[in-house]
Amino acid sequence: MRLGIISDTHGLLRPEAARALSGVDLIVHAGDVGKPEVLTQLKAIAPVFAVRGNVDTEAWAAELPATAIVDAGGASLYVLHHLRDLDLRPDAAGFDAVISGHTHQAEQWERGGVLYLNPGSAGPRRFNLPVTLALVDVGSAPWKVEILELLRS
Description:
Layout: E1 2-6, H1 15-21, E2 26-29, H2 36-43, E3 48-50, E4 67-72, E5 75-80, H3 90-93, E6 97-99, E7 106-111, E8 114-119, E9 131-137, E10 144-151
Parallel strand pairs: 1-2, 2-3, 5-6, 6-8
Antiparallel strand pairs: 1-9, 4-5, 7-8, 9-10
């Protein structure tokens, strides 16, 4: 199973992001969607799980949960927007990965056998940071994680 991990679109689904996500089995959006049209566009590519971010304050975003548990091909993912709001021990809870956003900086690390992944920001460029998203193949062992830079600085 191939996952597309995206965050901080802030109302903009770039054509480069849509192309990069083409062919994934599932899309996880880690918040700051910005506009409901982004989710509509993503759902045309693959099934979507999305959480609410700090900019998702309009009425349409009320249906988005603050956190989500996603089963992806036998992998258990815990999704939230800002990692500082993590209020559980992912290893003790049996999660394989924690997916977050907010910082606009792509990063990944492992702690206690749990992958922590922030795909960065795929929306409007901010803070002179790269525009990125992540692709994850949970069918391989170890998982193959690829952070894609959509636009060169």
